[in-house]
Amino acid sequence: MTSKERMLTAMRGGRPDCVPVAPDISNMIPCRLTGKPFWDIYLYDDPPRWQAYIQAVRHFGFDGWLDGVPIRFDFERDQAAQQPTWQEAIVARTPERIYTRQHAVVDGHRKWSDHCTVYYIDNPPTHDVPLSKVALPSDPPYEWQDVPRDSRLPGLEAYRAARDMMRDDGVVGVHVGLPGLRLGSDMIYEYFDDRARVLAWCQAEHRRLVRRTEELVKLEPDFVLIGVSGFMLTNPEPIFRELALPALKDITAICKRAGVISQIHCCGPERNLVRIAAEETDLDSINPLEPPPMGDCNLAKIKKQFGHKLSLMGNLHTTDVMLRGTPDDVARASRQAIDDAGEGGGFILSTGDQCGRDTPDENIHAMIEVARTYGRY
């Protein structure tokens, strides 16, 4: 099988020639492999992150899993056009950091964001940083440099370019979120202080996401990736059922009717989400099923309870095993994961959320070797 065939078979719950292996290296490791400052990728799209990722897939030789190229449809642009157009601008820099703020003209006056983004030479950016934390003045800077976006491919064009570049080396997905409470305190306070307003926003977001999914499946992607990182931390089951589950049911039903794989990504606690998705939605696949203490998933138990309903993707510990472990540690954990969830197919050997920048290449190679040999059916 090709990597693409192997991944699609497993994501649909089938049994490929061997257990697919797709460690989550969607960010830091591809950036490191380019040899460029990280801000080249994150700020200037040089190269775009999806391109750096596909190059990393070929560098290591695992089964590619591209989690989505940003796409915005015309109806979403029309909605956004009703709001002020915000422009990112560089307002300060050092040899190791670039600081940006957003600005827009509102009612004839230039308005600046209250927070900034910090781009690093060797790490992903930090968003929504208070200005006081990095000693930036709150008054508008007298000089700034707008960040050019001329080199960025439009979303649909980038998506097609990513598919052409990936070819049979893996799968390329598209992304749709879920309505619900986001990480951070502001929206959580608002839910309890002005619940009606939050409910109205979630209902509007539900409608937008349904329409977005209907447009996405027309592109015939390999899969639709649903979710938001850490979502269950701020949306425990009662809140999840109220704010997010109706949209999840509709999104997965649309995918099922279109014959497109639906998959959820939710790092952190996920066990309750696995149960709800398996019993009450048309979801096909779920990841990363993180073990404690980062998550709450026991891979063997989840396979036994829900493996007949869901394809599973996970779940090697990204710090204790992948970052700090030896190749022997990685091989041992990989064999255990295959023993826990590989029987009968429907399993992709992967990691918890996001391998760190300094994860040894030898550890990734050890993981691949186990999947290709010990993971054969």
Number of strands: 13
Average pLDDT metric? 94
Query: Which word captures the global form?
Result: globular
Which range does the strand content fall in? 15-25%
Total helical elements: 16
Order of helices and strands: HHHHEHEEEEEEHEHHEHHHEHEHEHHEH
Helix content: 40-55%
Q: Unreliable segments (pLDDT under 50, ≥5 consecutive)? A: none
Distance between the termini: 12 Å
| Computed CA radius of gyration, to the nearest angstrom | 21 Å
Strand order of the largest sheet: 1-8-9-10-11-12-13
Largest sheet: 7 strands, parallel
General description of the model:
Helices cover 43% and strands 18% of the residues. It is an alpha/beta fold and 377 residues long. The strands form two sheets. The chain has a seven-stranded parallel β-sheet with strand order 1-8-9-10-11-12-13. Helix 2 crosses helix 4 and helix 15 runs parallel beside helix 16 (361-373). The radius of gyration is 21 Å and the shape is globular. The two termini are 12 Å apart. 41% of the residues are buried. The model has no long low-confidence stretch (mean pLDDT 94).
Concise synopsis of the structure shown:
This protein is of the alpha/beta class.
Descriptive terms for the model:
377 residues, alpha/beta, seven-stranded parallel beta sheet, six-stranded antiparallel beta sheet, 16 helices
